[in-house]
Amino acid sequence: MKFVVDAWSKGGGRAGVLQVGSCPALIETPALLLSTRKALPNFIPPDLLRSLPSPDSRLLQFSPLHFLEGPSANTISDIGGVRSLVSLHEFGFAAIPRDSTAILPEFDCTNKLGASFNTPSGRHLLKPAEYMRMLAAMKPDIWASLSDEVPSRATDKRNKLSVDRTVKWLDECIALSPPGTAGFGAIVGGWDALERQRCAQEVAKRNVSGYWIGGFGLEETSDQITSQLLRVVVENLPEEKPRLVSGLGLPEEVLRGVAQGIDLFDSAYIHQLTTGGFALTFPFEAAKRHSISDGMSDGTKINLRADVYRKDTSPIMKSCHCYTCMNHTKAYINHLLNVREMLAQTLLEIHNTYHYLGFFQFIRRVVKEGRFQEFHQEFIETRRGHSRVVPADDVCA
Ligand SMILES: [Zn+2]
């Protein structure tokens, strides 16, 4: 893995280039990792996945936890790893032991040997050695070490235990690290700034290729605390290595992360929008943001289940060049949603992913032009204005 930071914006935000494993594409950062179920997007088939902008869409997140129910590590190894399993040879893969869409950490676990997760088939205990055996079979380009994530309500004692365990497990993971892969050290500590700092300092001493910041997106979070915790963590990390955060998905959360120097984002946001029947429509440019007047939008998205779209023969966004907007109308997607055709989610996931990749592209542009702080402030202010006119039942984000 190679990573170079090539631009800093005054007041926050940095842009760089990441090259991982066998993925030939250079990924520009800040970047979005596409979330998957068993290494493929939830609804986008492989041929349409290739219709998304490249190389922006070439870095996929997957959760090894999804494979606890099979196929087995031996079978995946025999096939040649996750990349060969799903036949996406030109893509990069990042293994992260978390998926907030279906699998949650078992916070009350008292087992000191490994992380415990609630999965659809019951509770699973995963020890570092077993986790690394899975990764050796899956051959991801990037992997995050096993962590003991805790929610914001955790006690001081539990936060401390979480950090102690996560650092210990990191050492075990490093000792068993598969050759040719890039290990990211997990940083936890809940809502305790001192524990976050301690964890970041301990992980920064280890021989890792980057950092994975966990513990966000598990419960409602305060904007101010999120920024404070990210700042404490990033201040204690070397500048030359990439920082990946999970659980920050809303546009405002992404901007908050970028402002603190985060390079990579992984979240269930696109998945949640898509399964809810929502399409992202928020514009990036300031002038366009002021022009939104559609009463069905909250300034971020529209709900395509709404009756108002039943006879709407326009695309989700006329200015969007994604496969969905180039070929289909709101009326058709509304119909597909009403008759519960999975093609609705496929078309929505394509549009939402395309749109969000465009948002990240715009963020990189303003960082490189040195006007990220100005863009960030203006974005938040115009959206505050929108939120005052949105009907409460149309807002889910
Ligand atoms: Zn579109």
Give descriptors for this structure.
397 residues, alpha/beta, TIM Barrel, 2 domains, eight-stranded parallel β-sheet, globular, binds zinc ion
In the residues, how many domains can be counted?
A: 2
Q: Please indicate the percent range of residues in DSSP E strands (runs of 2 or more).
A: 15-25%
Helix-strand string: EEEEHEHHEEEEHEHEHEHEHEHEHEHHHH
CATH architecture field of the largest domain: Alpha-Beta Barrel
Heteromolecules bound: zinc ion
Report strand order across the widest sheet: 4-14-13-12-11-10-6-5
Cofactor: Zn(2+)
Family: Belongs to the queuine tRNA-ribosyltransferase family. QTRT2 subfamily.
GO molecular function, one term: metal ion binding
Keywords: Cytoplasm, Metal-binding, tRNA processing, Zinc
Overview of this structure, please?
This is Queuine tRNA-ribosyltransferase accessory subunit 2. Its main location: cytoplasm. This protein is α/β, with parallel strands linked by helices. It has 2 domains: 2-273, Alpha-Beta Barrel (TIM Barrel); 280-288 and 300-379, no CATH class. It is 38% helix and 16% strand. The protein contains 14 helices and 16 strands. The protein has an 8-stranded parallel beta sheet. A 3-stranded antiparallel beta sheet has the order 1-2-3. It has a 3-stranded antiparallel beta sheet with strand order 7-8-9. It binds zinc ion. Residues 316-317, 320, 322, 324-325, 351, 354 line the site of zinc ion (ZN).
